[in-house]
Amino acid sequence: MQRATSLVILLLLIALLAGTATAQEFMIYPAQGQSQQQMDKDKFECYSWAKNQTGFDPMQLPQATAPPPKKDAPKGGVVRGGARGAAVGVVGGAIAGDARKGAAIGAATGGLVGGMRRQDQKRQENQAQKQWEQEQVNAYTQKRNTYNRAYSACLEGRGYTVR
Predict the structure, then answer these.
(1) For residue range 116-157, what is the model confidence (pLDDT) as tens digits?
(2) How many domains, the chain?
(3) How many CA atoms lie within 13 A of 148 on its CB side?
(4) Is 97 left (phi over 0), alpha (psi -120 to 50) or beta?
(5) What is the rounded distance in angstroms from the CA atom of residue 43 to the CA atom of residue 18?
(6) What is the 3-state secondary structure of 68-137?
(7) How far is CA 90 from the centre of its chain?
(8) Element containing residue 45 per DSSP (H, E)
(9) What is the extent of the structural domain holding 112?
(10) Phi, psi of 15 (to 5 degrees)
(11) pLDDT by residue (tens digit) across 59-108?
């Protein structure tokens, strides 16, 4: 469920970027006295050409790749660690002469270590998710910039000033 929510949030973020990119449309000036009809025709032809050259269509919704797979989280990190620690503590306590005290110390230490391992795993998963999201945004931005350069070059080649 969290993976689906993350994917939806990412797609919305990319869509917002796409909306921002299209909102920042080019200022196109007909430097050679082209008519509005000719300019509209040239803009469409340059859109088609840039789309074919770059494989990017700014009119399409962005597509994201699959998010990184989540590792199966070990269940009961604190409890499992506490149980293991208690077992080790009993042995250590028995050697020292107080198995009950050793078990208590081992359980507390094991629970702490188990909890720390689980938190570390969650931190790594969150970091992988954020990295994946950033890679998606960067890939979209790079493709959009390549398309923009191709579109501008086409229009400039047809005698327009593009800003």
Answers:
(1) 777 888 888 899 899 999 999 999 999 999 999 999 999 999
(2) 1
(3) 16
(4) left
(5) 19
(6) CCCCCCCCCHHHHHHHHHHHHHHHHHHHHCCHHHHHHHHHHHHHHHHHHHHHHHHHHHHHHHHHHHHHHH
(7) 46
(8) helix 36-54
(9) 2-162
(10) -65, -40
(11) 998 887 778 777 665 555 555 555 555 555 555 555 555 666 666 666 66
